[in-house]
Amino acid sequence: MYNFITSMNEDGLKLYGMKMLETAARYWKEPLKLTVYYHDFDLDKHDVPHPPHIEYRNLNLLTEMTAFRETFKEHDGTEDGKIDYNFRLDAIKFCHKVFALTEFAFELAEDSRDPGWCIWLDADTFTKKEFNATDLDKFLNPKAELAFLGRKHFDYSETSFMGFNLKYRGALDLLGDLRGAYNSGEVLNYREWHDGFIFERLLTIYRAHGMRVQDFTGHLDIKDLVKGKQAFESFPLSDFMEHLKGDRKSKVKGKPIPPAQRYKQLADIIRQYQPARVVETGTWIGQRAIEMALASFENRDDFHYMGHDLFEEGNEELSIKELNAKRIVSVEDITKHLNEFKDKMKEKDKIFTFELIKGDTNQTLQENIDADLAYIDGGHSTITVQNDYNKLKHIPVVVFDDFFTADKDGNCVEPEFQEVNRIMEKTTHRKYVLPSSDGVREGGFTHLAVMLTDPDIPDLTNKVMQVPIHVTPKDCVPDQNLVSNIKKNIKLIDNWLEKGRAHSDRVIVVSGGSSTDWEHVKELSRQDNTRVVCVKHSYPHLLKHGIQPWGCVILDPRPLSGKSTHGVIRKTLFNKVDKNTIFFLASMTNPSVTRLLKKQGANLWGWHAFSDTLRSEGDRNKPVLDNTINVSNEFDIPSDTTFITGGTCAAMRAIGMMHVLGFRTFDLFGYDCIVPEPSAKDKTKKEKDGRPKWMNVTVDDHKFWTTGELLAMAQDCEKLFERDDVDMDITVHGENTLVSTLWEKSRMSKVRSYKEFLPC
To answer: Fewer Cβ atoms within 10 A, N terminus or C terminus of the chain?
Structure first.
């Protein structure tokens, strides 16, 4: 049995809900059921469909929900008007979803011996073709307690779809904890107060206690997002339905793209030049106006905005002509929105004033406008871009949106919409095209372009021009070599790692960077219940400084005879082996290492690094479902084996491994990820795949030389430091390194330990 549930208010019904209801009425076949909870409006005033499989319920009749809203009414994303609206702190908006979902699920479980699946579906989802229960049978695992859409690059999963298998107690318990978090007000103790954030925290706990889950989209990588993939579009239900996420609620046509990142650069431009008066073509919903004002207010107390847009005079024909993909809004709505912002700024002793001019800028935009900065982001046709530029080119700083470049496949928007490119090519003024990976539905990328028309205006700073570097590490040996290594090591190694319980012991993990303070390591290692774990490069250094390594983690499929990343012959790293050290060898380690250590009488324990190489051929590159993998039959590996994740190298897997063994307190040494500045000749060297051998990267104003391999490790560290769903107490040691700089900027480094200010 499949019971779907959703909720909506009157605005939601008008904007997208009616389409959901009409398409569900048309395409859904019994025994599928849809229960719709509505709130704060009279449903009878709307002509909604009433087929037998759709039921409507008034959420306002649920006293627990109305009591919650009254008790916590100030927590509506503005803290009773004390802050600008922040959806992450809007407990009121998202409580409707929580109360509707949990109330319905509890009723199903109470009234039926076989309640089946209770499936939440956001109301901004519509059905595209005939849909029935057998379609769900094909991909929903009946043994799963929970089905969801994971997102490993976000703080929480995509909750537009959540399936709870109510025949299992675990699903009901999780829903009970979710409801309890809101009923008790516990939700306000979290960093964010919306259902997605709380759901993710509970999900982490329940998975740790063995909940069987089916994660359809947790495998999506950042490159998938750049290509426009969203979680909902990447699982089987998308064959039948479409989720109108974000701005797509009002524009179904076109390929989805991830949120734009280039507007952060616009704010940086505002911070540098500190304009008092800004003119923009293409106001739309006023979001950019507010962002520019806030950036300007960091350095001044007054800001005047002049916004030009078609507003409600726009139509689909003009949108096609000007390559606009945004919904039409009214000048009245934006005026109200900006006035609210103006009032809030006044409370902070900031003066925000604005003018909104409705109409086609080819007729309404005046010449000689008095402004310090112009932001051109209106129509994209040649005529409109030329008109806007010609009338605003006297302004000292001119910023264009939508300078287009092609993607790796050569895709780009049509030349007729590339007038910004042509203007920038012809100008003799100082000009900059800012780096960007913001995709375009038509293909290619879009950038901000800056033109400085006043010779006295200072150059754009390097900080604005910085762009994140992402590397995708590749296995350093072919798959067939890894397969061979794993098979041989399974026979060579007698003891294999198993999951342990959490405990209070401390672990010091020493990587291969040169920043390690050996005396500090020695001092910490003498404390009670403290273990020292290292990678192979730091192992001989620990022994040299009289420090006993409890464990050494090895993850290197290359033979002993070659040189390591640090230019050392690998075999020499094991010239001296302490019999008290446990060598944790990954099964993909080259067997020559295993044989050498066995010959020296070392204490060996094997472990399996999570890798697609271990999976059955049909499952490789597919999402991991139920938190397990199907191991290829060519490997003699038990199905309940614990696989170690954590990153691209031994130092990162060591953290994951120690967590699996129960450690929760970590001191990290030697996590540098930098190299000395190469010579001028070496700076030109390339890897075999054409990438630079040495890279110069910047974090804020700190510059570092590194390699692709070390940069991948630094990125793994950065991701770890930003997580708040991992129960780890981490301290990063070392100064003026890439990783220590990332640590100082991270969320995790700023989380205080209670023992700092509470008596033990």
So the answer is: C
